[in-house]
Q: What sequence folds into this?
């Protein structure tokens, strides 16, 4: 299925005078400040370099996510980024995230049971053990790059165990995933497009190889069951099967890696709240929800308008790329008291956390992500309450999956 709307259309209204324009440079320097500066007065801002409208307010992001006049991006976003054919293009073309209606339903349905909250909650004890085992690998050393040695390893182990991928494959697929997720950054340069496409091809080959092995020798794991059920239902092509697994590996690895690092860093930067969490495990889920609000690991989601849409009094024309800014919405002063204050005791968190999106595409991995985040934090707070943050991670990015890097912590064993 090719999207009907051409990526080129997204530049049509770049010259609009009523809507402020923001640049990638400004956003990269301080996205929260840019969104804060415009949000009260303007519901929407336009991105200068690539076109595309950021929706800034909580209530608009909520409404627009459910508005039938906005569609999944199909291949529009990929084309805007310079992926006009090849693996990354196909990942958008055959994925669930980028499809609407029946194609989306067919591609998502086989995963619903595996990823349901009840099934995932049964896995919590093993997720907690995985976190505790990881900590013991380096506890005696007294210092570590937390980002590489914990935040990156936890989600990779969980997704590998869930899907039945061998743990020895983790280094190979995680490195590829970290490059592939750049496909969601805005304004990629030509060299980056080549780098991302190459990583995409290698990840596709890896998934292809694993699926081929399971087809020839089913193992009683999730992938074997998925292939058997999908083949019997006859609703998905081999390419669709491949790209759903590709999407789960990509979606399940980097999002949570960044979120785990962010939440521990934020708590250590607010020492009193860290100590409260260490004393009282009942505070864990509130702490995780607040960290996701304050500094989300996913900056926003994309849609395309199929007709003119009024967003808070500003009309976004048909055929435009729209970026629903989670980062802006979760700091909206009209939705949250003191939005720029990190407070794990906040009582006004919405029932559905905006960081996981809304509507048909709401994150299928939400229960896994929450379990990983809460069990990771619980294990660290219980084992190393004396943890110190020596080098905080530098968090960057304003859309798609955000970035963090080195995060050094130390403690007296
Ligand atoms: C903190 C961690 C995570 C965050 C912030 C996050 C965020 C999101 C968001 C915002 C969406 C909706 C996108 C849209 O509406 O366009 C989404 C969809 C999705 N997520 Fe996540 N996610 C996380 C973890 C995970 C995990 C652990 C997995 C897999 C195990 C996963 C797999 C997916 C998939 C496959 C979709 C597409 C669903 C669909 O289109 O129906 N995510 N995620």
A:
């Amino acid at each position: 299925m090719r999207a009907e709307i051409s990526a080129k259309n997204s530049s049509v209204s770049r010259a609009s005078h009523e809507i402020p324009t923001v640049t990638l440079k400004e956003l990269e320097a301080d996205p929260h400040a840019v969104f804060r500066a415009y949000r009260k007065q303007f519901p929407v801002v336009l991105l200068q370099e690539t076109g595309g409208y950021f929706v800034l307010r909580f209530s608009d992001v909520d409404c627009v996510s459910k508005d039938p006049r906005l569609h999944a991006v199909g291949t529009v976003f990929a084309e805007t980024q310079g992926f006009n054919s090849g693996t990354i293009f196909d990942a958008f073309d055959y994925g669930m995230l980028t499809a609407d209606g029946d194609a989306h339903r067919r591609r998502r349905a086989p995963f619903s049971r595996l990823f349901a909250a009840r099934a995932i909650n049964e896995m919590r004890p093993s997720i907690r053990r995985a976190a505790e085992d990881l900590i013991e690998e380096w506890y005696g050393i007294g210092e570590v790059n937390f980002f590489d040695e914990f935040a990156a390893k936890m989600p990779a182990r969980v997704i590998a165990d869930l899907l039945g991928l061998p743990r020895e494959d983790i280094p190979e697929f995680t490195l590829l995933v970290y490059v592939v997720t750049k496909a969601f950054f805005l304004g990629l340069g030509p060299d980056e497009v080549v780098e991302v496409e190459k990583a995409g091809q290698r990840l596709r080959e890896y998934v292809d190889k694993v699926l081929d092995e399971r087809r020839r020798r089913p193992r009683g794991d999730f992938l074997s069951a998925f292939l058997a059920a999908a083949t019997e239902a006859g609703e998905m092509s081999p390419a669709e099967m491949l790209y759903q697994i590709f999407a789960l590996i990509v979606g399940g690895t980097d999002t949570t890696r960044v979120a785990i690092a962010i939440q521990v860093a934020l708590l250590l930067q607010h020492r009193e709240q860290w100590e409260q969490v260490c004393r009282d495990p009942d505070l864990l889920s509130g702490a995780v929800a607040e960290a996701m609000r304050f500094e989300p690991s996913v900056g926003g989601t994309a849609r395309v308008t199929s007709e003119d849409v009024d967003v808070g009094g500003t009309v976004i024309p048909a055929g435009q790329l729209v970026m629903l800014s989670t980062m802006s919405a979760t700091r909206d002063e009209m939705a949250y008291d003191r939005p720029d204050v990190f407070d794990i005791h906040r009582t006004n968190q919405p029932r559905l956390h905006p960081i996981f999106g809304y509507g048909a595409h709401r994150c299928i991995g939400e229960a896994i992500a929450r379990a990983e985040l809460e069990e990771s934090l619980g294990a660290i707070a219980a084992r190393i309450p004396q943890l110190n943050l020596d080098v905080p991670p530098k968090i960057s990015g304003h859309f798609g999956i955000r970035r963090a890097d080195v995060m050094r912590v130390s403690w007296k064993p």
